[in-house]
Design the sequence.
């Protein structure tokens, strides 16, 4: 089990009377950067919520780092960043991080480190409400990095970021993975797929394909991963 | 439960309020302004001002903390920060007590200001000491806060949350005996008033602001305020869900 970070069997989730995930199985290797890709509304966020244990499940099994998803022991080992930045807009960057550091029980020296990691050094005293959307989501990301979680679940962390910053964040993600963390990162932008070690392609609440960028290219004969994904969808629907 | 997390939460809530000086000013100025207004409305009836104004010093914090907390908690729910906290190693009681400590301190500040003005400059008197009114005010504020935390779960928007104040607090104010002696109400309402926490909050304040022995009823009132706070906090904890649909 040591090489498996997430193992899901026959997951079913219903939200608002609609079946959002319908019989999904997947496997995420430890120490990898796995991209969860698919169009908006395909169930990516719901799947992530199920993995971190904040989603009510209809049925199925979610095992995370060898424990049932959402178990209290996992709250120290899993970091979760929601799509909308979940930080306090009326506090400064460092006040937000100092609070979350106290909650997860790490020393205040981590605050400076994670601010540096997300590229906000020198801006500590700025009120989060006055930051741009991209900066705010980096504060949200920094909060999740405080306790060096073994698994980081990031819901669209690069939405609305400029290309330079996006490249920097991907570099950070790879650094975290080589330091031993597992990252599950969702995106609806296919050009980010090439950054990932493994890919989960999702559509309409189901997993279409569990693959790697190279295999996807070989399998479809397309160099462009966006087109490759379209080819997989066509294959699946034909 | 962890004292570290509870205190960090209280500090965080206070820091948030500190960033909003207008809210602090309103919290301190509005009750005083209303009390001054009452003083001159009842200019020709000083006994009425004493009978209503003196207990009001201890009821303002209840009303205002109910309102402020229900909005604060609703924001926590809608901004996603509650979902984040529920995925972190924080006990629900740490969050609730953290809020309680922060708003309790704020209520104490409010009570001190309103009692100073009421009892020192507007001619109200507290035969058992203004400190007793102040203490009751803080207790009532924590009760108001606990009720606010609980009902915030039933509001989806701030528009809904503000309506809980007229819906849940006004009837209690009318039935608690502040404006009309409860014995003079329709007997059904008199019966209902026994089931409302504000009845006991008012009774304690009324006893603290008129002469005569405090009596065993005072002890009962305080016990009821305390128990109602615990019940509201427990109900509030039930509305904090780790998993949502």
Sequence:
């Amino acid at each position: 089990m040591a090489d498996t970070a997430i193992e899901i069997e026959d997951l079913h989730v219903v939200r608002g009377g609609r079946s959002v995930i319908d019989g999904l199985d997947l496997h995420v290797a430890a120490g990898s950067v796995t991209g969860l890709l698919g169009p908006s509304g395909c169930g990516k966020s719901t799947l992530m919520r199920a993995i971190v244990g904040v989603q009510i499940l209809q049925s199925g099994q979610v095992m995370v780092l060898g424990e049932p998803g959402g178990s209290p022991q996992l709250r120290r080992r899993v970091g979760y960043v929601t799509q909308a930045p979940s930080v306090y807009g009326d506090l400064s960057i460092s006040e937000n991080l100092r609070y979350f550091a106290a909650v997860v029980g790490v020393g205040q020296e981590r605050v400076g480190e994670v601010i540096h990691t997300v590229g906000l050094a020198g801006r500590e005293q700025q009120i989060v409400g006055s930051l741009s959307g991209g900066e705010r989501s980096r504060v949200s990301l920094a909060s999740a990095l405080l306790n060096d979680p073994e698994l980081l679940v990031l819901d669209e962390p690069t939405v609305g970021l400029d290309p330079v910053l996006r490249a920097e964040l991907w570099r950070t993600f790879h650094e975290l993975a080589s330091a031993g963390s597992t990252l599950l990162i969702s995106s609806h932008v296919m050009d980010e797929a090439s950054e990932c070690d493994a890919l989960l392609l999702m559509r309409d609440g189901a997993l279409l394909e569990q693959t790697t960028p190279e295999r996807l290219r070989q399998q479809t004969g397309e160099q462009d991963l966006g087109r490759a994904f379209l080819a997989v969808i066509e294959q699946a629907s034909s | 439960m962890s004292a570290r997390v509870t205190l960090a939460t209280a500090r965080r809530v206070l820091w948030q309020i500190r960033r909003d000086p207008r809210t602090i000013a309103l919290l301190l100025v509005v009750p005083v302004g209303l009390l001054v207004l009452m003083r001159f409305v009842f200019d020709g009836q000083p006994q009425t001002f004493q009978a209503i104004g003196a207990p009001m010093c201890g009821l303002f914090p209840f009303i205002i903390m109910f309102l402020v907390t229900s909005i604060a908690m609703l924001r926590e729910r809608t901004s996603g920060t509650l979902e984040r906290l529920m995925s972190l190693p924080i006990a629900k009681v740490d969050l609730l007590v953290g809020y309680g400590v922060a708003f309790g301190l704020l209520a104490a500040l409010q009570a001190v200001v309103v009692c100073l003005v009421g009892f020192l400059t507007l001619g109200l008197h507290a035969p058992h000491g203004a400190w007793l009114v102040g203490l009751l005010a803080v207790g009532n504020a924590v009760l108001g806060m606990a009720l606010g935390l609980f009902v915030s779960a039933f509001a989806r928007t701030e528009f809904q949350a503000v309506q809980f104040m007229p819906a849940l607090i006004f009837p209690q104010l009318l039935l608690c005996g502040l404006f009309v002696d409860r014995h003079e109400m329709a007997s059904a309402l008199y019966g209902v008033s026994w089931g409302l926490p504000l009845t006991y909050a008012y009774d304690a304040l009324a006893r603290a602001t008129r002469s005569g022995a405090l009596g065993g009823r005072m002890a009962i009132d305080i016990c009821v305020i305390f128990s109602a706070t615990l019940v509201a906090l427990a109900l509030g904890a039930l509305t904090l869900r780790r998993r949502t649909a």
About this structure: The longest helix of chain A spans residues 163-178. Residues 79-148 of chain A form one domain. Chain A touches chain B at residues 15-16, 52-56, 70, 72, 75-76, 78, 80, 82, 84-91, 95, 98-100, 102-105, 127, 143 (CB under 8 Å).
